[in-house]
Amino acid sequence: MTAPAPAAPAASALPFLPFALPEIGDEEIAEVIDTLKSGWVTTGPKARRFEQDFAAFLDEPGIEAIAVNSATAGLHLALEALGIGPGDEVITTTHTFTATAEVVRYLGADVRLVDIDPATLNIDPAAIEAAITPRTKAIIPVHFAGLAVDMDAVLAIARRHGLKVVEDAAHALPTTHSGRLVGTLGSDITVFSFYANKTITTGEGGMAVTRDPALAARMKVMRLHGINRDAFDRFTAKVPSWYYEIVAPGFKYNLTDIAAAMGIHQLKRAQGFQQKRAQLAALYDELLADLPLILPPRPAAGEVHSWHLYVLRLTDDAPIGRDALIEALYAAGIGCSVHYIPLHLHPYWRERYDLQAADYPHSQHAYERMLSVPLYTRMTEDDVRRVAAALRQALTG
Ligand SMILES: *Cc1c(COP(=O)(O)O)cnc(C)c1O
């Protein structure tokens, strides 16, 4: 007996519109080829240049940028450098990707997940304050979708309770809060991601930034096996190059020059990419305004939203559910995603901490009604119109 063939998606004359696509230009490609031909493909001059360019981009004296092979690695290094360990608790949002929280567990510390503010989908400062215990050591706010967390509130709580702050800025390049770029806001360490679908990409990669020279030094040592000199230092130094010392059981988190070569040119385009994303987001806002949808929260006047994601929520009285809406968009040849299945619903987190959805009513309510539609620089205005028309068709028949 053969199973019936799955129903084909409704025939569409248009090609499939993926949920995300990187924009990689001739300059990135030429720089990668230059690296491949140079004889130095792992961490070296291009990674160093990318770090210097990144610090210059943030344009704040005293900030050091440390390139790593993922944001997950950067978050792990950040918490390690801050001395987080067994017996400690770290507070973060349930409404994030698991990487934000798993790094706490790498170090044997415990995670306290808290709910979001439904207006912003960002961690709720009042919920942070309510979750603090004598074991709490740090807070990890996540700038969800690229809209800045109320960092004034988070930093004030941290100061009052003597807590460290590590910003998960995987979505937040470039994002501002009070007119200042995320990365310069005064937390201990901020970590950016250059994963394939982020606002700039190196395929895989990340950057940890800090003003504190001791934290920077610790992250640099732990990024490469706990060695007190990196391989390129040894290669270029005037002293005999074979000698090094291991000062800690470190990790293998360095960024290759091949990846950094992409990053150097992606970074130059970051502001232009943001403008394009903001224009497309504004067009979505205009086209979707009358539909039974809650549009993404907007930043305060004068602030920059990176527009990493365009996250819609169905209103409570919408005529169809979220899953059916995603199916309808897929049938129209449009890729979508959901950001996120909150951590309190995943078996590992739910079982480890005996979490109940009822304890996260705002995240749960948002999750059940949310979908992310395509928003990236290679989209045209016609692509946005096509997505909006498919949403209209599905929601108004
Ligand atoms: C992508 C992402 C990460 C992890 O980034 P990687 O570079 O893939 O390790 C962490 N947190 C959030 C919120 C993310 O979206």
TrEMBL record:
Molecular function as annotated in GO: pyridoxal phosphate binding; transaminase activity
Location of N6-(pyridoxal phosphate)lysine modifications: 198
UniProt entry keywords in alphabetical sequence: Pyridoxal phosphate
Organism per entry: Sphaerotilus montanus
Keyword Thylakoid attached: no
SUPFAM superfamilies hit by this protein: PLP-dependent transferases
Descriptive protein name: dTDP-4-amino-4,6-dideoxygalactose transaminase
Coiled-coil blocks: none
InterPro entries hit by this protein: DegT/StrS_aminotransferase, PyrdxlP-dep_Trfase, PyrdxlP-dep_Trfase_major, PyrdxlP-dep_Trfase_small
